[in-house]
Specification:
Layout: H1 2-9, H2 11-34, E1 46-49, H3 50-59, H4 61-68, E2 72-85, E3 88-94, E4 100-104, H5 110-114, E5 121-131, E6 134-141
Parallel strand pairs: 1-2, 4-6
Antiparallel strand pairs: 2-3, 2-5, 3-4, 5-6
Helix pairs in contact: 3-4
Length: about 140
């Protein structure tokens, strides 16, 4: 134990500790500003119907990326399926069979996702993560 305290007295160790504290503080700031939990009371930037949103994306990806990327949106559509990605349930909210948005729920929402029925009307809210024409809401709630 005394060797740990002695190593902290050395200048290189102090720089390492200071660097670790700075990195930790920076990570906490990023988490606070960019990874806020989403609730149904979280204000939304846009409220859209899944079909019109996906058609807008397919019409001009650059404009859609600029308008939606990283923003909280609310999407209404039909539930097309639930799959597991590791321990995370992922809902497919769609317009037709080929047009879907993926809603990444928290792992503790698995029991609720298991009760959803195909074709049910859904309203989800989440942070838009666009990758080309793929749309992910992560984090997402319903």
């Amino acid at each position: 134990m005394s060797t740990i305290f002695e190593s902290l007295k050395k200048p290189a160790s102090m720089r390492g500790v200071a660097l670790a504290l700075i990195i930790g503080a920076g990570a906490a700031w990023v988490k606070h500003h960019y990874f806020k939990p989403i609730t149904m009371s979280t204000p939304v930037a846009h409220s859209v119907e899944v079909g019109s949103f996906l058609m807008e994306l397919r019409g001009n990806q650059a404009a859609a990326h600029q308008k939606y990327q990283g923003k909280v949106i609310e999407v209404a559509g039909k539930m097309r399926g639930v799959r597991m990605q590791g321990s995370t349930p992922v809902l497919s909210i769609g317009y037709m069979l080929i047009f879907n948005i993926e809603c990444h729920l928290a792992a503790d929402r698995t029991p609720y996702a298991a009760r959803l029925e195909y074709g049910a009307d859904m309203r989800v809210r989440g942070v838009v993560r666009l990758n080309g024409s793929d749309v992910h809401l992560d984090p997402c709630i319903y």
